[in-house]
From TrEMBL:
This is Glutathione S-transferase family protein. GO terms for molecular function: glutathione dehydrogenase (ascorbate) activity; glutathione transferase activity. PROSITE patterns: GST_NTER. Gene3D superfamilies: 1.20.1050.10, Glutaredoxin. Residues 8-84 form the GST N-terminal domain. It comes from Pseudaminobacter soli (ex Zhang et al. 2022). CDD domains: GST_C_etherase_LigE (cd03202), GST_N_etherase_LigE (cd03038). The lineage of its organism: Bacteria, Pseudomonadati, Pseudomonadota, Alphaproteobacteria, Hyphomicrobiales. GO terms for cellular component: cytoplasm. GO terms for biological process: glutathione metabolic process. InterPro entries: Glutathione-S-Trfase_C_sf, Glutathione_S-Trfase_N, GST_Omega/HSP26, GST_UstS-like_C, Thioredoxin-like_sf.
Length: 231
């Protein structure tokens, strides 16, 4: 049975961009499962499966609905144990929790601010209104333009914060080791988020993190490249 996965899009339905939805898409591809991707703009998320969740991704697998990218990965691991593992065991699950917290506290804050205006500009008008209102409230009333204007100044410090990842990738091709695991998809999702929505060059040429990201984009017949980079 084909699994349905609901994922966030802007005005261009062919460019899903949510970092969390990309984690789920990569997880499904990793497991080799058949799935259908359903595009959902911001203002239609409350309508998904009759309000099953406040955010996407959401998957429907037969009569099962699962939300939250990490919970979806755990569900896929337990429901399809005969397929390639997303974690490589309980230790991998625990390590992935750490990677998720690190990504959410280190990568997401910079990307969320730096790409904020680019994301807004790629949404449909009704979603732009929602996005501007919600994001400016999160930033104590600061305009999207004001927040995004700081990205050049903050960029060098952000690159320094990637040193643990950069160093890890000097030993092995993926965060998961010789092959990718869910921990890779957590971080991949963040970089895919800005690749799809912002033309800003977040990683310099020759950076081991960029080389790793390119390897991830090529996984599973290049599913990551199915959404074109922003120009």
């Amino acid at each position: 049975m084909t699994i349905l996965v609901y994922e966030l899009v802007g005005s261009d339905l062919s460019r899903p961009f949510s970092p969390h939805c990309w984690k789920t898409v990569m997880s499904l591809a990793h497991k080799g499962l058949e799935f259908e991707r359903i595009a959902v703009p911001f203002t239609e998320v409350p309508l998904v499966e009759n309000g099953a969740a406040k955010t996407v991704p959401v998957i429907r697998d037969g009569d099962r609905l699962v939300s939250d990218s990490f919970d979806i990965a755990l569900y896929l691991e337990r429901t399809y144990p005969e397929r390639p593992s997303l974690f490589g065991g309980p230790g991998g699950e625990a390590s992935a929790r750490f990677v998720e917290r690190w990504s959410q506290m280190t990568i997401h804050p910079f990307f969320g601010a730096a790409a904020m205006l680019d994301i807004h500009d790629r949404l449909a008008p009704v979603d732009q209104a929602y996005f501007r209102d919600s994001r400016e409230k999160r930033n104590n009333g600061r305009s999207l333009e004001s927040v995004a204007s700081e990205r050049e100044a903050r960029h060098p410090e952000f690159l320094k914060k990637l040193e643990p990842l950069r160093s890890t990738l000097s030993y092995q091709p993926f965060i998961g080791g010789e092959s990718p695991l869910f921990a890779d998809y957590i971080v991949f999702g963040a970089f895919q988020w800005v690749r799809v929505m912002s033309p800003f060059q977040y990683l310099p040429a020759g950076d081991p993190v960029l080389d790793w990201f390119d390897r991830c984009l090529d996984l599973y017949d290049g599913i990551g490249r199915s959404a074109p980079a922003a120009a």
